[in-house]
Amino acid sequence: MDDSDIKGFGAAFRRSDLTMALGLLTRLPLPYPAYDPASTRPAAHAAWAYPLAGLVIAVIAALVGGIAQGLGLPPIAQAVIVLLALIVTTGAMHEDGLADCADGFWGGWTRERRLEIMKDSQIGSYGVIALVLSLLLRWAAISLVIEQGVFWPALIGAAVLSRGAMVAVMYQLPLARKGGLSGQTGRPSGTATMAAGALGLVAALCLPGVSFLWVLATTGLILLGMAKLAKAKIGGQTGDVLGASQQITEIGVWLCLIAAHSP
């Protein structure tokens, strides 16, 4: 069967969208769909599959964590290995976006200077601080859910929901610049955004021991705040903004889990 459209949510979805999402969001050695110059369908239409790419990423990290557990490592060491698996699988692209946004948003005084800093491959003080805090919070949360025995659903839920959140930011904000990864990808359709959101909501429902409404409210506030901040600082979204949105949303989900499972 060829790559025919799969009808759903009132619009067309393609089976190759998952491969495209994995090719964009991971470093897995997968065959990337060939680009068709005659196609009028933007690459961003594949964004509905970003949460599914998050599922794949989480499963890989969970399997690696299971191996660490089988070797008898304590939860704090397992959490480090899980984080490493997440970073290696994605090529640290989301972490890079978080660091670039921290440096650009607070290191420049004008829109042009902020975009220039975000494009620079060097990392500054704000970026280092953001990365250290992000990794510490995620490490603490993963250690806790491993101890609580809810590691698999927590990891999968956080990974899927946070990547669905990325699509909402892509749809809501205009492009801050024409070039870059986000500019090449474009903006997703409303249908793709709703599909990604639906997958994210399913993931939120599966999070263990935490209120769905609490997670939903936390995610909504993070996305609203991130959208307003990006619009005020650089006038829209870039690939770095999307990566930062994923990281901050994931951290928000982990904080909800920590609060729910703390004695």
What can you tell me about this protein's structure?
By secondary structure, the chain is mainly alpha-helical. The protein has one domain. Helices cover 70% and strands 3% of the residues. It contains eleven helices and two strands; from the N terminus they run E-E-H-H-H-H-H-H-H-H-H-H-H. It has helices at residues 16-25, 50-70, 75-90, 93-107, 111-119, 125-148, 151-172, 180-185, 190-205, 212-234, 239-261; strands at 5-8, 11-14. Strands 1-2 form a two-stranded antiparallel ribbon. Strand 1 and strand 2 (11-14) form a beta hairpin. Helix 4 (93-107) runs antiparallel to helix 5 and helix 6 packs parallel to helix 11. It is globular and about 50 Å long. The model is unreliable at 1-11 (pLDDT under 50). One of its GO terms (cellular component) is plasma membrane. One of its GO terms (biological process) is cobalamin biosynthetic process. Belongs to the CobS family.
